[in-house]
What does this fold into?
Amino acid sequence: MTKTIELQVNAQNIADIKKGYPLILKEAVLNLDVLKEEGSIIHLIDRNRKFVAKGYYGVQNKGIGWVLTKNADEPIDFNFFESKISRAIERRATFFEDEETNAYRVFNGEGDGIGGLTIDYFDGFYMVSWYSEGIYKLKHHVYGVLDKLVTYKGIYEKKRFDTKGQYIDQDDFVQGAQGDFPIIVKENGMNFAIDLNDGAMTGIFLDQRDVRESIRDNYAEGKHVLNTFSYTGAFSVAASLGGAVKTTNVDLASRSLPKTIEQFSVNGIDYEQQEIRVMDVFDYFRYAKRHALKFDLVILDPPSFARSKKYTFSTAKDYPALLMDAIAITETNGIIVASTNNASFGMKKFKTFIETAFNDAGSKYKILEESSLPKDFRTNRDFQEFNYLKVVILQKTK
Ligand code: SAH
It folds into this structure.
């Protein structure tokens, strides 16, 4: 029998945990020295040494572990993982039945009861992402549960917990059959080429599914589209299929060029009619202003932080300036899709960025649509910090 590790956390964190907050905050821990090995199961106790919850020790960029249960008698074992994962699968029954979509999130970390673990499904392949060494130590349970509960072609994994914050290229294949990547998945009838064996990113961000659908169905017809930070051009594929006249795609990474050509091609769109530019977005804005280019639909979905040779960009600081650049090259009555995945601020703050940018630009706008994570990215509604995605679709009215 191993000794129970008792972790004392401060009154605030205890109160939050009792209300369902799942994260164990480092700054709330009073006896950090008891934490030795990641993956250990720990008991959280209050200052009277009374049991509050059980969790695991695993260091992420935020927090040092996650609460798993508030029931002292519930063991953290195979059955625990099975109950959480099977419940998550049940909740996504409509996705499994949807013939137009075969790429979605099956398990969303703390929103499904186990922080630090996500499982995505891509047409028969499962991709398991591990966000700390601690949760990775418990992987045998997860792979065992998948074996028991689902049929699959193959399982891949992404380890997202190396210390340097950099993803180390490695063999991500776990078990089953190896995929012949890229494979083509379907999303609301659109095709997307994805590769589970090509670094941390697969070629498509599943959390933007609803936004892609809305762009295709509501905002693209007849439009000239500028897609900034375009990555593989997924928003542009949606816009083209929705009847956009032309898309211009701008991304700094050279891999974005072949990947964007591929996404257009698997949808039967002639990529030569599109513009795909490997360049810095901020340089592109200057170029567009110099040439008096204007767009009817501008998509802004930057990474939370970006550093290029010339610029550093942080959404928390620089989003208003980015928006001002976009406003300057958007036609009157044109649409801007403003998106951010920065979890450090909420929708309210994001809207103040929009307000500031339009004021400073001497322009006016109207919000047409607001959205957040789609249903398969289940989050606890009481704690907005886990609902990181914020998308505002607005019209520049003046
Ligand atoms: N909007 C995309 C995802 C963007 S991921 C989608 O929906 O699929 C962020 C992208 O921003 C990456 O591809 C990265 O190469 C690009 N990027 C980061 N900094 C940049 C910059 N200064 N200029 C252009 N692209 C940049």
Remarks:
- The radius of gyration is 22 Å.
- The first strand starts at residue 5 and ends at 8.
- The pocket of S-adenosyl-L-homocysteine is lined by residues 205, 208, 229-232, 234-235, 250-253, 256, 280-282, 301, 303, 306, 308, 311 (CB under 6 Å).
